[in-house]
Amino acid sequence: MQITQVTIREMKMRMKEPFSTSFGTMQDKHFLLLEVHDELGNTGWGESVAFDAPWYTEETVETSLHMLRDFLIPLLLGKDISHPDDVGSLFAPIRGNNMAKASLECAIWDLYAKRKGISLAEALGGQRERIEVGISIGIQKDLADLVDKVQRYLEEGYKRIKVKIKPGADVEVLRGLRSAFPHVPLMADANSAYSLDDIDLLKRLDEFNLLMIEQPLAHDDIIDHAVLQKQLKTPICLDESINSFEDARKAVELGSTKVINVKIGRVGGLSEAKRIHDYCMEKGIHVWCGGMLEAGIGRAHNIALTSLPNFTLPGDTAGSSRYWEKDIIDPEVIVENGYITVPSAPGIGFTPNLRTIEEFTTDIWHFKEN
């Protein structure tokens, strides 16, 4: 297939409620939406998951726009691509910038599956017809509010609860949740808020029988996590530390992690995410698909990825209504009793709602083959 045109839309969508982590609070989601066209008139869609500020990774919406416009799209336009795996080789001269790369590579995967007349899940090798869904809850102003939210999401059928923690809002929060919900699958996400100086505090989390504690230490660390994992009964899950297959391999060999959160944008696309999945399945390491507060296009890619067999833990791909009054796809992503049905239609299996997309578009750029 030959890529003849790429369109970038700058988007801004208001979330239904603020989302708070140890980094800060966000309610307006500013992101890029990509549409690629081939020589036959087919289109594929991708979504950038970079945020406005570089608090999760060094990438931002603005840096992604720069990389796409000035480097990645020129490398792609007019090229003959036999398989989406080829995109990684095209982008190899550009270091880092995984979220920018992933937004374009995911659009190529969608396009490829549509040309083949198969679902994206099938194109990736997915085996599930539906996926289990967990929920991620930001830091709340008090424990009572958090308990109320957890109760509501459990009643909606969500299979796993993830709560954000930070110093000063950790042990007592988890103790309160465990008191209210003794048997609920529960995990804590620290977003790199601790260090080895906090090892005694982190060891106290073992009493709460957590599924895992996610990224307790530095965002770029795998050494100290190996030290910490030896001291904890609770499995450590790595998130920000895993930006590639090689990061995953080294972390597993060092004993830094027992679980890996695979985020498509963080690792540079679906091809790399699948490599990490395959390696972890071989090594007996559980994986699950994390969320980046995606709109419908990014959410659809997550659903397809989660259909792979080693995604054995519920991911963060909640339904559209969890975050948005109105999403940008038809139909919207719906959770039924804690499950999402994996679409079987060609490509991502959801139709971009162009009218809604235009409503949330703040700027647009078109790039065509010379």
Structure characteristics:
370 residues, TIM Barrel, alpha/beta, 4-stranded antiparallel sheet, 35% helix, Enolase-like, domain 1, 7-stranded parallel sheet, 13 helices, 15 strands
Could you outline the blueprint of secondary structure elements for this entry?
Layout: E1 3-20, E2 25-38, E3 43-47, H1 61-76, H2 86-91, H3 98-116, H4 120-124, E4 130-132, E5 135-137, H5 143-155, E6 161-164, H6 171-180, E7 186-189, H7 199-203, E8 213-214, H8 223-231, E9 236-238, H9 245-254, E10 259-262, H10 264-267, H11 270-283, E11 286-289, H12 296-306, E12 329-330, E13 339-341, E14 351-352, H13 354-360, E15 361-368
Helix pairs in contact: 1-3, 9-11
Structure description:
The protein is built from 13 helices and 15 strands. It is α/β, with parallel strands linked by helices and 370 residues long. The protein is globular.
Which percent range fits the helix content? 25-40%
Largest beta-sheet characterization: 7 strands, parallel
Secondary-structure-based class equals alpha/beta
Number of domains: 2
Total number of helices = 13
Instruction: Quote the distance from N terminus to C terminus.
Output: 17 Å
Q: Say what oligomer this is.
A: single chain
β-strand number: 15
Widest sheet, order of strands: 5-6-7-8-9-10-11
CATH architecture name of the largest domain = Alpha-Beta Barrel
Gyration radius from CA atoms, angstroms: 20 Å
CATH superfamily of the largest domain: Enolase-like C-terminal domain
Outline type: globular
